[in-house]
Amino acid sequence: MPALDLVTAELTLTGRITTASNATFLGSIGDVPVVYKPIAGESPLWDFPDGTLAHREVAAYLVSEVFGWDVVPHTWLRGGPLGEGMVQLWQEQDPSQNAVDLVAAEDAPETGWKHVLEGQDENGRMVALIHEDSPALRRMAVFDLVVNNADRKGNHILAMTDGHRHGVDHGLTFHSDHKLRTVLWGWVGDALTSEECDGIDRVTEELNGELGRKLAGLLSAGEIAALHARCDRLRLTGRFPAPSGEMPAVPWPLF
User: Fold this and answer.
1) How confident is the model at residue 2 (pLDDT cuts 50, 70, 90)?
2) Is residue 247 part of a domain?
3) Global pTM exceeds 0.90
4) Would residue 5 count as lying in a domain?
5) 53-67 and 135-147 helices, crossing angle to 10°
């Protein structure tokens, strides 16, 4: 039996994710479950060009592949029942795990977790936003810095049974202006590890090669130049940066 072609084989819709801000469908290609986001279903935004979110999702996957950390599941462009769009392999996360959580402030753990912020809930109780202190999540935070992720919500992090963490929903990335909004602020000021620096170096090197050529069909020249500059700046400082600029530091809602 010939191998299934994920680009040309029929894409069948099986459901819709109604909580997503853009049209997002569950589907299958043969027996392979996927997520499908048609370009025609993208909502207009004031700060991102219309009809580019699917391309940014694919660009995020390409950068993830160069990092070599498997942050973003396999993602590609192809036609579908509602026209061209982004297709991504579905990931079955572990419902018993939470890489990011909102807990009562007095219950925030002191070890194994990073404290991001505190605030009041709708009942006036103090709550804390926390995330796990793990190498997998650190790598995702580095990835977000490089791609300038403007929407790293807690539920955009998929906790897998084996301890791996996937990041999804990368349509709001690669803006040439600083747009970083994330729940992963727990390592502010910490030095980057040699592994993290090596990953950034791989991206920088490949921007002058195959990665740069592929991204040229997905992003503007200015966005690619800004991506290169972010890599250079991270390597120069060698540390996780603190929030800066006028943009909110965290997305809303947080999850």
Assistant:
1) low
2) no
3) yes
4) no
5) 130
